Small-conductance mechanosensitive channel
Amino acid sequence: MNESGDIVTDLAVVVDLFNAYAILLLVAGGFCLWALNWGIQKVSGSLMDKVPARRFLILQITTLIGFLIYTLGTGALIVGVLNPPREFILAAAGSIAVALGFALKDVAASLVAGLLLLFDRPFQVGDRISFGDTYGEIVAIGLRAVRVQTLDDNLVTIPNARFITDVVASGNAGELDMMVVTDFHVSVQADLEQVRGIIEEVIVTSRYAYLKKPVTFAIEEVEIGNALAVRFRSKAYVLDVRYEKAFQSDVVLRVTALFRDQEIPRPRILRD
């Protein structure tokens, strides 16, 4: 009899908490949190346009602020509007934790992983990353997933939990500039110093090149189509990761044209 009475009492407490006025305040408060975050996103977008050199820092701060708005704001809204008894908060928190642990274990894992990503920072918003078969720029680090904009303009959503166990490579690690690697192949009969000079001149005169960091080369003999060739692997920095492919295309087009004009021999494929 006492158990039945406790259940009825608990239900009465819940009903009293979620009256029409409280529900209206919760909805209004939730809308205010969304509007506040939306406004911050708009302001950060304007700041990034005015101060492009600080784009990554602005994105990182905006992501952290959005996280705090939704987590702390939601908690404060529930406690402030509903003002539930302390015993009810403890009981509800325990029950919710157990239910979520079984029903939403994958989502919970992603939420915990999202917190680890924000504090451990293996990568940041704005970084170019390689994760499995996905390569692109991180545009958002959310509570549940990371969103990556690929070079084909596809938006890929990856659960946070996958980044805790799998390997991810960051191309620029929070910096605006990034190394771009480009390969060129020439015949073993080519004048290698001339080839190197052509490639280096094209790189340093590109409008996308970041010249505060060095241009380096790795030169080695390789086999292409049963024929021996020399590979020039240029390593240069682009001034902004957004110009990665534009930089690479500019270099390849101009180097190829100069090779043709100066009659630099290219590898000849030997057929069986």
Summary: The mean pLDDT is 81. The beta strands are 128-131, 134-141, 145-150, 155-159, 169-170, 178-187, 216-224, 227-238. The radius of gyration is 28 Å. The chain is about 55% helix and 20% strand.
